[in-house]
Design brief:
Blueprint (H helix, E strand, L loop, with lengths): L4 E6 L6 H12 L2 E4 H14 L7 H10 L2 E6 L2 E6 L2 E2 L7 H10 L3 H12 L6 E6 L2 H5 L5 E6 L2 H14 L6 H17 L12 E4 L5 H16 L3
Parallel strand pairs: 1-6, 1-7, 2-6, 7-8
Antiparallel strand pairs: 3-4, 4-5
Helix pairs in contact: 1-9, 2-3, 2-4, 3-5, 4-8, 7-8
Bound molecules: cytidine-5'-monophosphate.
């Protein structure tokens, strides 16, 4: 039996993956996997449990029992840890940096692999992350790699934080983005890189509408009628 359709959207933080995956999932009525949220919640749970982010064995144990769920709401998908809404807490810059540290451990990634694959379902799935097309769903029917310059990603993040009423220093954001990129691109296991069969889309000079249009043209080419 043919496997349910998966559209993977990989790329660095701030390239617009979240917005693109939300739009695609809504358009096709597909399920959505925000794999970054899983690493963020694991890092958050580990910190709460007093674990060191370099303690791979303890992190694996935490990953195995992680009680995580996603709940759709009017203002987007909420992320629950042990039934408690941690959506706000896991979206800070610090939570992102901690997620990236946790995600660098190969055994931790292994422990989370099946949990991610279980999201594949009919009629389809849009999966957002770093290794969706390379490791988690290597047989995905459509693979997109969304990139953008670090400077533009920092600008977008600054704007997003300001809209939320938070103070944000552009230079600090840029520095953090570069550090996280460095860690994600250079780790030994599942480094951030495009799958050989991925469409590489650079969103630096594109609006989200233009990104969506290009993604849709590629999806049509791969899946036929959409
Ligand atoms: O996408 P997001 O910024 O929420 O991801 C947080 C961190 O989780 C990333 O910087 C990356 O280190 C890690 N991650 C990963 N593999 C994924 C998704 C996220 O390693 N598939």
């Amino acid at each position: 039996m043919a496997k349910a359709v998966v559209i993977t959207v990989d790329g660095p933080g701030g390239a617009g993956k979240g917005e693109l995956t939300r739009r695609l999932a809504a358009r096709f009525d597909y399920a959505l996997l925000d794999s970054g949220a899983i690493y963020r919640v694991l890092a958050y749970a580990a910190r709460k449990a007093g674990l060191a982010l370099f303690d791979e064995d303890s992190l694996v144990q935490e990953a195995q029992v992680l009680n995580l769920s996603f709940e759709p709401a009017a203002d987007g998908v909420h992320v629950l840890l042990n039934g408690e809404d941690v959506s706000q807490e896991i979206r800070t810059e610090e939570a992102g940096a901690n997620a990236s540290k946790v995600a660098a451990h190969p055994a931790v990634r292994d422990a989370l692999l099946q949990r991610q694959r279980d999201f594949r379902q009919e009629p389809g799935l849009v999966a957002d992350g770093r290794d969706m097309g390379t490791v988690v769903f290597p047989d995905a029917q459509v693979k997109i790699f969304l990139d953008a310059s670090a400077e533009v990603r920092a600008q977008r993040r600054e704007l997003q934080l300001k809209k939320q009423g938070k103070t944000a220093e552009y230079a600090t954001i840029l520095q953090e983005i570069k550090e996280r990129d460095e860690r994600d691109r250079n780790r030994a296991t599942a480094p951030l890189k495009p799958a050989p069969d991925a469409l590489i889309l650079d969103s630096t000079a594109l609006t989200i509408e233009e990104v969506e249009e290009k993604a849709l043209a590629f999806i049509k080419e791969k899946l036929g009628s959409v």
